[in-house]
Amino acid sequence: MHDIRSIRDNPEAFDAALARRGLAPQAAELVALDERRRAAITELQAGQARRNEASKAIGAAKARKDETLAQSLMAEVSTLKDRLAELEVEDRTLGEQLSDRLATIPNLPLADVPDGADENDNALVAEHGAQPAFAFEAREHDTIGPALGLDFEAGAQLAGARFTVVRGTTARLHRALGQFMLDVLTRDHGYEEVIPPLLVRDEVAFGTGQLPKFAEDLFRTTDGRWLIPTAEVSLTNLVREQILPEHALPMRFTALTPCFRSEAGAAGRDTRGFIRQHQFEKAEMVSITTADQSEAEHERMTGCAEDILTRLGLAFRRMKLCTGDMGFSAARTYDLEVWLPGQRRYREISSCSTCTDFQARRMNARYRAEGEKGTRFVHTLNGSGLAVGRTLVAVLENYQQEDGAVAVPEVLQPYLRGLNRLEPKP
After folding, report:
1. I need a surface site. Which of 34, 66, 293, 314 has the fewest CB within 10 A?
2. pTM of the full predicted structure?
3. Exposed e or buried b for every residue in 48-59, given b needs 16+ CB within 10 A?
4. Domains in the chain, ordered, with CATH?
């Protein structure tokens, strides 16, 4: 959510930032709507003051037995009552219109975010690790996977397209990956583990920016709750409607949860395999911090996700997303893309974003700085650490063997009681 006062003070800067997002100017309309509301509030306050003044004067006139003046004042109060009721409706209606408009406008990009239209304009920041060399033709995971327990047919029979049943040692490997991620994030990087609700209310989905604009990307239950598309929704809203002491920040949360996405805008994309599913697991990171800490926190969070990839021995690169490829709530996003030798390309496995105070305004999440009476909005950040299914895909493709087996990365073997190979079924 945007601060209308900031827009009013510098409309040109607001429109220039929207233009970087590929959006038309909106400041003039927003300011005009705000001015109409402020005028209604001013008239309402003046009318209330006059009504109170006239009501007192009625008593004084009656005490002096000045019935003519008393009747005149009573008529004025009656007229004011009707007008004040109209102004209250006008104030409420204009306020709702302004809030609705502001709620659909994405966050503004930070100055260092590259301009661009789509993923082709993202900027390479760094590459890490060595791509594996094979003495055979590397295969994609959907070719390797069925003999190892990725049952695409059973998933489709049970639930339809974009669902998969994972079985046997591959299911164990999937579980090991999630546990490994949680252990690294909690033990080595100081995140607090959380088991959050998977179903949330409207205001919670609104707080992180999923509603109202992206309702079609979510699944909704018959009682009006929403299945979370990411644990970011639940974790970030842990501080909604709160005023935190500055010394409590930063807060760092992590959760390993199922996630549910309708993939409404992904028709025809990644229909094969385990890349883009309606249901998947992800280890999520969320940070709640102050404005002066958020830059460093963004680098730290991204580094935590990179640490997991490095320990798994996977080659990856960090990309800074351009203005046209960022999510709705993000002010800057780093994508981590892992090398998939079967596809011979890098694929996104983590997105780490700083949302500045955009989500905090929607949640009314604030903190009180030391020695100050007033409050400030917190800054929120979120990132994948990592998407478990896509990490499974990366392990299958990068550790594949010529005979169809898959070697288990050394860091995962303790979670599998020493198992070092997934053997294909004949």
Report:
1. 66
2. 0.92
3. eeebeebeebbe
4. 4-103 (1.10.287.40), 119-422 (3.30.930.10)
